[in-house]
Design brief:
- The structure is a single chain.
- The chain has about 325 residues and is mostly helical.
- Helix content is about 50%, strand content about 5%.
- It contains 13 helices and 2 strands; from the N terminus they run αααααααααααββαα.
- Strands 1-2 form a two-stranded antiparallel ribbon.
- Helix 9 crosses helix 12.
C-alpha cells in the first residue's frame, strides 16, 4: 500500500507582521528583481508572481498545524475524578467506579463540543457566510476535520457538472427586467460618462486600492499580504505600475487571470445525496493581481455614477456609513 503523502507546507503570510521577517522578505524581492533585470528578463505578471513566491519560500516560516484543543483538559470535574482515581488500587471496585465516571464525563464534554461546533456551522449556513463555513470545516480544531465519509461525488461527474454550469447557454426568453424595464434604468442609461476616469491608473490610485483590500483571502496566485508588503519596495511598485498601465493601454489581460480554482462544499443531506453534484456549492478562488484592477474599475464607476445621479439621493452608502445601498424604482421615480 502506498504511503500517504504529507501535505506541502506553505509559507505563513501572517509572519510578515514581524519586522525582521518583513525586512528579509523585502530584501529578497530587491535581489530577485535586480537579478532578473541583469539577465535582460522582462518583468510581466508571471514574473511578479514568481518573484513573490520565491521571496516567500526563502524567507517566511512555514505554516504550523495547530494541535486540537482538548477542552476536557481544563474541566474541573474531570480533573477531580482523575486525581481521586490515582489514590485507588487499579484492581479495586472504587478504581472501576471512577473509571466509569471518567468515561461518562469525557463523553459529555465531547458531545458538548460537537454541539457547539454544529451550532456555529448552522449559524454560518443560515447567514449564507460561505467563506466562514468553509473555514470552519478546514480548521485544525474542528471535530469534523478528520471525519472520513465514503459518500462523495465522483470527480469526473463533478467536473462535467460545473463545466456545463459555467458554460454560457442561449437565453430563450428575455428577462422580465428587459421587457418591463423600470424607469430608473432609463435614467441610468442617460447618465454622462465624462466624469468617469478612463485613463490608466496612477501609483496613488493603485496604492490606495491595494491598501484597502482585505488580507487572509484565498487566491489562485499569491496572497494579498505579499503584494501589500512588497509595495514598500520602490522597484517593485514601479513594476506593478508598469503592469497595470500596459494592461490598460493594450486592453489585454493575462490569460492566467481568467483561470480560477473551484472548491466545492457539500450543502448537506437536506439538499440531496452527496453523489449528486448539484448539491454542492462552488467556491471560486481567483487572482489577487486581477482583483486589484477589478476594484479600480468598480470604484471609478461608483464614483462617477454617484457624482452624476446620487448627489441628491440618500440611497448611496459611503464607506463606513450604515445606510443600505440599493436601487429602488420608487426612489428614482420621485
Amino acid at each position: 500500500m502506498a504511503e500517504k503523502q504529507k501535505p506541502v507546507q506553505k509559507p505563513e503570510p501572517k509572519s510578515l507582521s514581524n519586522n525582521q521577517i518583513k525586512q528579509q522578505f523585502l530584501q529578497r524581492i530587491k535581489q530577485e528583481l535586480a537579478g532578473r533585470k541583469r539577465n535582460g528578463e522582462s518583468i510581466n505578471e508571471a514574473s511578479i508572481v514568481s518573484i513573490l513566491k520565491s521571496a516567500a519560500e526563502t524567507t517566511l516560516p512555514k505554516v504550523k498545524s495547530c494541535k486540537t484543543n482538548e477542552i476536557w483538559k481544563d474541566d474541573t470535574i474531570l480533573n477531580e475524578l482523575l486525581e481521586a482515581r490515582k489514590e485507588k488500587d487499579n484492581t479495586s471496585d472504587e478504581y472501576k467506579y471512577f473509571t466509569k465516571n471518567i468515561k461518562k464525563r469525557v463523553k459529555i464534554l465531547r458531545n458538548e463540543k460537537i454541539a457547539n461546533e454544529a451550532k456555529m456551522i448552522n449559524g454560518f449556513a443560515s447567514r449564507r457566510q460561505v467563506e466562514e463555513l468553509y473555514r470552519s470545516f478546514k480548521s485544525e480544531n474542528s471535530t469534523f476535520k478528520d471525519s472520513r465519509s465514503t459518500r462523495k461525488c465522483d470527480p469526473t461527474k463533478m467536473k462535467n457538472f460545473f463545466e456545463a454550469h459555467f458554460t454560457g447557454q442561449p437565453v430563450e426568453e428575455d428577462p422580465l427586467e428587459l421587457i418591463e424595464a423600470p424607469e430608473y434604468i432609463k435614467k441610468l442609461k442617460s447618465l454622462s460618462v465624462h466624469d468617469i476616469s478612463t485613463g490608466p491608473p496612477d501609483e496613488k490610485e493603485i496604492r490606495d486600492v491595494i491598501k484597502n483590500l482585505k488580507c487572509g483571502k484565498a487566491s489562485s496566485d499569491v496572497p494579498m499580504e505579499y503584494i501589500k508588503k512588497s509595495m514598500c519596495v520602490p522597484e517593485f511598485a514601479e513594476e506593478i505600475l508598469k503592469l497595470y498601465k500596459t494592461i490598460w493601454q493594450t486592453r489585454k489581460l493575462p490569460r492566467t487571470w481568467g483561470h480560477s480554482k473551484l472548491v466545492t462544499l457539500w450543502k448537506g443531506p437536506t439538499k440531496g445525496s452527496a453523489d449528486d453534484p448539484s448539491t454542492y456549492r462552488g467556491l471560486q478562488i481567483g487572482s489577487s493581481l486581477c482583483k486589484i484592477i477589478v476594484v479600480i474599475i468598480i470604484r471609478r464607476l461608483k464614483r462617477g455614477i454617484k457624482n452624476n445621479y446620487f448627489t441628491n439621493n440618500k440611497v448611496f452608502a459611503q464607506p463606513g456609513e450604515q445606510q443600505m445601498a440599493y436601487l429602488s424604482p420608487r426612489e428614482y421615480n420621485k
